[in-house]
Amino acid sequence: MTNDTKQKIRLILFGPPGVGKGTQAKILSGILGIVHISTGDILRQEVAGGTDLGKKAKSILDSGQLVPDDLMIGMIKNYLRSPGAENGFILDGFPRTVAQAESLSRLLADLGIKLNMVISMEIGRDTAIKRLSSRVACRRCGTIYNLITDNLEDPSRCGKCGGELFQRDDDKPEIIGKRLSVYESITEPVKSYYGKLGILRAVDASGTVENVTQNILSMVGSK
């Protein structure tokens, strides 16, 4: 695949909590040379910084609910209009409802942007729960680790900055089930929306990180 073709890749990674969207988006962003737009990371940065947006989002994130559509669309618009997104992008964590998908379609049309593909990462519920309940984050730099797969020398300290590792409220067992139920009832219909547009593809996300990456690269024609 030529560099010119790579620059035109615009993807959405879609799937339930714990499927590995963020991990794959970061890897693919580096391989394909396109920006990773993670609404989850953006919101967590705002929360950590104590901004007005962060204060508004904190209670929503902690309870496992969805943030308001207008807030998300406005944030996405700013990133899509930035110079970093000109060469393509991977959108991770949005849209989560059909209404958001419709709003995003209108926004992309207004900006003259065409999506190449929406990749649905598929995983079993039990596996998702296991992955999420093993996830911790650094209080200082925000880096996220998985206690099962990351082989940390000290499971209480960040391997990058030495900050304290903690489990986010939305990764605790009592919240995980609620998050998955929200996905199944509200977010799952988004697959049908993109399926009707003819740009939905599915990938088995239960394998190793490396295998999932290679399967996605094959789908976008960059293997």
What Rg is obtained from the alpha carbons, in whole angstroms? 17 Å
Mean pLDDT: 86
CATH architecture of the domain at 3-123 and 187-220: 3-Layer(aba) Sandwich
Q: Please, how many helices?
A: 10
Q: What name goes with the CATH superfamily of the domain at 3-123 and 187-220? A: P-loop containing nucleotide triphosphate hydrolases
Characterize the biggest β-sheet: 5 strands, parallel
What is the number of strand segments?
A: 8
What letter string, H or E per element, gives the SSE order? HEHEHHHEHEHEEEHHEH
Question: What's the N-to-C terminus distance?
Answer: 8 Å
Q: Mind telling me the CATH class of the domain at 3-123 and 187-220?
A: Alpha Beta
Q: Which structural class matches the secondary elements? A: alpha/beta
User: What fraction, in percent, of the residue positions are helical?
Assistant: 40-55%
**Which segments are poorly predicted (pLDDT under 50) over 5 or more consecutive residues?**
1-7
Largest beta sheet: what is the strand line-up? 2-3-1-4-8
Strand content: 5-15%
Architecture overview:
The chain has helices at residues 3-6, 21-32, 39-49, 52-63, 69-80, 98-111, 125-133, 173-187, 189-197, 209-220, and strands spanning 10-14, 35-38, 89-92, 117-122, 135-138, 144-146, 165-166, 200-204. The strands form 2 sheets. The chain has a 5-stranded parallel beta sheet with strand order 2-3-1-4-8, sandwiched between helices. It has 223 residues and is of the alpha/beta class. 49% of the residues lie in helices and 15% in strands. The chain has a domain at 3-123 and 187-220: 3-Layer(aba) Sandwich (Rossmann fold), CATH 3.40.50.
